[in-house]
């Protein structure tokens, strides 16, 4: 059995964990990010005669290095963990959240209300290319599960720029939930952030933050190690 | 021998103004009563046809006022789905003059209808704009929060607009028997539950439409003395009538009442103008060519034709741009660099 974990930049927490201390398992694991989350603003896949593949030749090459194939293989011996579809930072950090707020918070904050349906629509729209990619994989019988991005971080600078923590968390929750609902409807398993990594409010615990300068939303290898163990269990 | 017709212009005579001309060559159908200056902030509302007017005004170069813009993150293609960008505030269709008058009262907190939120199949709807979220809101609290935001926007709109373009659409409406609250749709159609004991059908007369428009005009001029009103009547026929009449005469009755009321208001006030979009589309010299095959909806050529007459009288400023809806650049750059770096680092040899 092979487990190939790939996805956006959040995957690096898992690949760092794998490099530092591979889990004890018979499963052969390969793990690396193949692109940044911004890549998903464009369609990322097509369906070639051999199967689903990335459109970008660089990502295709990276997939080949990780898995031995330039396309996603539909085989019971191959499982993919795809860390994409739950990256919400581009939504929650948007400066408009200093003027707008989710409906449940808007009266208290004195901001313009945005309904949960609108926030869900924004979340789904942001991930439409990932969701289409997942649909394509599912259609050709590829064995895969989705891996959620880590929770938002309390250290994110947008919280010092007029966006309230409650707004950030609510926007993140609604946008993620929209994608989660969509994947669950399609029967796609989802690996969620582990409870032990989240503080009571919903932020990533500081001990799991990637502490590099200028990094405000990634998790570290300690977080990656927990996710990696859970991924192996899900495979 | 002299008589009053002697000095009338050619446009006053059917033969020279209509019979001897192609419908596409009818001139001077509208003579503006006041100018629209580049700095004038134009707001729109009304019945379905007003959506066309609103869209064309937004693109025209005039200073279009959008008092309740969509959240910048919502893709423009989804604005309409959530009731944004259709009119100058997110009020949905205002079919009747009474609705417009009561919108003002609700926004300025002088009228609080008792039956204002409807629950249908576990979702919640604002009874006065049940279409703005097609699947309703998640909770009553969400409806209230959205409504508070909306009413604040409506207050801004009526306080700051230079010109309010209102398209009258219907005389038929459903009202609350309790407090005369006027609903845009019959309870039980989009949302709510129809109850004969609670709701009544009303077909407004010309006098009632004049009364409601006059009431609105008085109130809006009290908060915004310089505002001017541009009335139009929608040429879109009734989808259905609740009267005992055939829908065709019911439509003609409705449009005739609205046309008469708009004309009366326009004659009465120098700050109220009437633009004949109804006549340009619906009158028989046009041979129904501007209707879709069902003879109800106006086709795009008809909208173009109407607006060409409007913009011939009110020339848009050549270089100005309306309050556009271009999405602001996303503030992603810093984090994107981080993401790219993380990926590159992972693949570093």
Task: Describe the protein.
- The complex is a heterodimer of chains A (235) and B (349).
- By secondary structure, chain A is α/β, with parallel strands linked by helices.
- Helix content of chain A is 37%, strand content 16%.
- In chain A, the strands form 3 sheets. In chain A, strands 2-1-5-8-9 form a 5-stranded parallel β-sheet, with helices on both faces. In chain A, strands 3-4 form a two-stranded antiparallel ribbon. Chain A has a two-stranded parallel ribbon with strand order 6-7.
- In chain A, 53% of the residues are buried.
- The mean pLDDT of chain A is 95.
- Chain B is α/β, with parallel strands linked by helices.
- Chain B has one domain.
- Helix content of chain B is 36%, strand content 12%.
- In chain B, the strands form 3 sheets. Chain B has a 5-stranded parallel β-sheet with strand order 2-1-5-9-10. In chain B, strands 7-6-8 form a 3-stranded antiparallel β-sheet. In chain B, strands 3-4 form a two-stranded antiparallel ribbon.
- In chain B, helix 2 links the parallel strand 1 and strand 2.
- In chain B, helix 3 crosses helix 4.
- In chain B, 44% of the residues are buried.
- The interface between A and B is large, with 41 and 37 residues.
Summarize the structure.
The complex is a heterodimer of chains A (235) and B (349). Chain A is an alpha/beta fold and 235 residues long.
List the helices and strands and how they pair.
The complex is a heterodimer of chains A (235) and B (349).
Chain A (H helix, E strand, L loop, with lengths): L1 E6 L3 H10 L7 E6 L11 E4 L2 E4 L2 H11 L10 E6 L5 H4 L7 E3 L3 H4 L2 E3 L1 H11 L1 H12 L4 E4 L17 H21 L4 E2 L29 H14 L1
Parallel strand pairs in A: 1-2, 1-5, 5-8, 6-7, 8-9
Antiparallel strand pairs in A: 3-4
Helix pairs in contact in A: 1-8, 5-7
Chain B lengths: L13 H6 L21 E6 L1 H13 L2 E2 L32 H11 L9 E4 L2 E4 L13 H21 L2 E6 L3 E5 L5 E2 L15 E5 L2 H18 L4 E6 L13 H22 L3 E3 L2 H6 L17 H14 L19 H14 L3
Helix pairs in contact in B: 3-4, 3-5, 5-6
């Amino acid at each position: 059995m092979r487990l190939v974990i790939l996805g956006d930049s959040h995957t690096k927490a898992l690949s760092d964990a794998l490099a530092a201390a591979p889990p004890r398992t018979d499963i052969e694991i390969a793990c690396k990010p193949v692109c940044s989350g911004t890549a998903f603003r464009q369609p990322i896949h097509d369906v070639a005669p051999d199967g689903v593949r990335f459109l970008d030749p660089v990502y295709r090459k990276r997939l080949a290095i990780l898995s031995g194939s330039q396309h996603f293989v539909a085989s019971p011996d191959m499982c993919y963990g795809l860390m994409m579809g739950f990256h919400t930072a581009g939504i929650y950090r948007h400066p408009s959240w200093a003027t707008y707020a989710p409906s449940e918070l808007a009266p208290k904050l004195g901001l313009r209300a945005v309904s949960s349906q609108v926030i869900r629509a924004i979340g789904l729209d942001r991930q439409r290319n990932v969701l289409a990619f997942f649909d394509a994989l599912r259609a050709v019988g590829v064995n895969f599960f989705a891996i959620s991005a880590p929770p938002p971080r309390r250290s994110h600078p947008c919280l010092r720029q007029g966006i309230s923590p409650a707004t950030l968390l609510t926007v993140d929750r609604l946008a993620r939930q929209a994608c989660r609902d969509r994947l669950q409807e399609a029967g796609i398993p989802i690996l969620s952030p582990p409870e032990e990594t989240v503080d009571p409010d919903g932020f990533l615990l500081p001990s799991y933050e990637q502490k590099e300068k200028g990094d405000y939303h990634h998790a570290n290898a300690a977080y990656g190690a927990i996710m990696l163990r859970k991924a192996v269990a899900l495979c | 021998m002299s008589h009053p017709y002697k000095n009338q212009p050619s446009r006053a005579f059917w033969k020279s103004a209509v019979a001897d001309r192609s419908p596409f060559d009818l001139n001077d159908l509208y003579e503006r009563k006041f100018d629209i200056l580049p700095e004038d902030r134009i707001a729109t509302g009304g019945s379905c046809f007003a959506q066309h007017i609103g869209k064309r005004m937004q693109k025209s170069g005039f200073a279009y006022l959008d008092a309740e813009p969509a959240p910048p993150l919502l893709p423009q293609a989804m604005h309409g789905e959530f009731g944004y960008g259709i009119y100058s505030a997110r009020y949905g269709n205002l079919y009747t003059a009474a609705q417009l008058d009561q919108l003002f009262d609700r926004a300025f907190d002088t009228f609080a209808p008792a039956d204002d939120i409807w629950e249908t199949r576990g979702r919640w709807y604002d009874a006065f704009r049940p279409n703005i979220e097609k699947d309703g809101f998640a909770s009553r609290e969400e409806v209230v929060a959205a409504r508070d935001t909306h009413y604040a926007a409506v207050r801004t709109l009526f306080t700051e607009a230079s010109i309010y373009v209102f398209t009258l659409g219907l005389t038929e409406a459903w009202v609350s028997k309790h407090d005369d609250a006027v609903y845009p749709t019959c309870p039980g159609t989009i949302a709510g539950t129809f109850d004969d004991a609670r709701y009544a059908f009303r077909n407004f007369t010309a006098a009632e439409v004049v009364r409601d428009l006059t009431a609105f005009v008085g109130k809006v001029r009290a908060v915004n003395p310089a505002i001017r009103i541009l009335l139009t009547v929608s040429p879109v026929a009734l989808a259905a009538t609740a009267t005992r009449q055939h829908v065709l005469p019911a439509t003609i009755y409705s449009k005739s009442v609205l046309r008469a009321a708009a004309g009366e208001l326009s004659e009465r006030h120098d700050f109220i103008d009437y633009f004949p979009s109804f006549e340009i589309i619906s009158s028989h010299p046009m041979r129904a060519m501007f209707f879709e095959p069902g003879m109800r909806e106006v086709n795009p050529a008809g909208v173009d034709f109407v607006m060409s007459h409007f913009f011939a009288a009110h020339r848009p400023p050549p270089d100005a741009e309306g309050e556009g809806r271009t999405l602001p650049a996303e503030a992603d750059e810093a984090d994107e660099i981080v993401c790219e770096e993380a990926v590159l680092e992972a693949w570093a040899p």
